């Protein structure tokens, strides 16, 4: 009996990452071939954000932090010391700063741009002030875009995911994040 319990304890992490809610192929597709952060994520806020917007970012950091170990995720005050900037600006204001990305922002409530070849090294998030105010969707948009920041893209099999429902992290999202950032994941 003791050996059975020890075996179950050893196999439990393997069972947890058995991808019961997704296949490894789906995860590779959902993350643009497994792109992820391999260094700490330091987030700064820029633009016309409210105290509630800041609290929403902090709340999402708290939820994501245990899922992406050993990567640390935190908020920093200085934009120069960050590798993720969240811009709370209208599309036109964002377009003045990032004219090359403006074409992607015109009709959306949020956008995330990740940079780096094999691993993500930097991310820029835009939370559109005008459309989010109309839809009262700041919290959901922040959560959704921070999921993209981790390396997830829109893909065909995104049912049961924050990518399709835009509310809370689902069990599938949590399992995918944990597996992507685990030592067990490799391509």
Structural class computed from helices and strand pairing: alpha/beta
Uncertain stretches: 4-17
Succession of helices and strands: HHEHEEHHEEHHHH
By DSSP (H or I, 4+ residues per run), the number of helices equals 9
What would you note in describing this structure?
Strand 4 and strand 5 form a beta hairpin. Residues 4-17 have low confidence and may be disordered. The N and C termini lie far apart (36 Å). Helices cover 43% and strands 16% of the residues. It has a five-stranded mixed sheet. It has 187 residues and is an alpha/beta fold. The longest helix is centred in the N-terminal third of the chain and has 15 residues, at 2-16. The relative contact order is 0.19. The protein has a single domain, classed as Collagenase (Catalytic Domain), CATH 3.40.390.10. It is built from nine helices and five strands.
Structure in a nutshell:
The chain has 187 residues and is α/β, with parallel strands linked by helices. It has helices at residues 2-16, 24-30, 51-64, 91-97, 102-105, 129-135, 138-149, 162-165, 171-180; strands spanning 41-47, 73-75, 84-89, 110-115, 122-128. Strand 4 and strand 5 form a beta hairpin.
List keywords for this structure.
Collagenase (Catalytic Domain); 9 helices
Give me the secondary-structure topology.
Elements: H1 2-16, H2 24-30, E1 41-47, H3 51-64, E2 73-75, E3 84-89, H4 91-97, H5 102-105, E4 110-115, E5 122-128, H6 129-135, H7 138-149, H8 162-165, H9 171-180
Parallel strand pairs: 1-2, 1-3, 3-5
Antiparallel strand pairs: 4-5
């Amino acid at each position: 009996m003791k050996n059975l319990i020890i075996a179950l304890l050893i196999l439990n992490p393997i069972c947890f990452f058995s991808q019961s809610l997704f296949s490894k192929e789906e995860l590779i597709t959902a993350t643009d071939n497994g792109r992820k952060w391999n260094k700490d994520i330091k987030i700064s806020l820029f633009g016309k954000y409210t105290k509630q917007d800041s609290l929403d970012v902090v709340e999402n950091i708290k939820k994501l932090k245990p899922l992406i170990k050993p990567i640390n995720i935190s908020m920093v005050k200085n934009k120069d010391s960050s590798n993720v900037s969240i811009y709370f600006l209208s599309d036109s204001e964002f377009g003045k700063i990032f004219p090359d990305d403006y074409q992607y922002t015109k009709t959306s409530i949020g956008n995330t741009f990740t940079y780096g070849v094999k691993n993500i090294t930097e991310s820029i998030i835009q939370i559109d002030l005008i459309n989010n105010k109309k839809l009262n969707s700041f919290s959901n948009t922040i959560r959704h875009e921070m999921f993209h920041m981790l390396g997830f893209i829109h893909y065909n099999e995104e049912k049961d995911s924050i990518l399709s429902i835009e509310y809370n992290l689902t069990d599938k999202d949590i399992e995918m994040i944990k597996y992507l950032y685990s030592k067990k994941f490799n391509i």
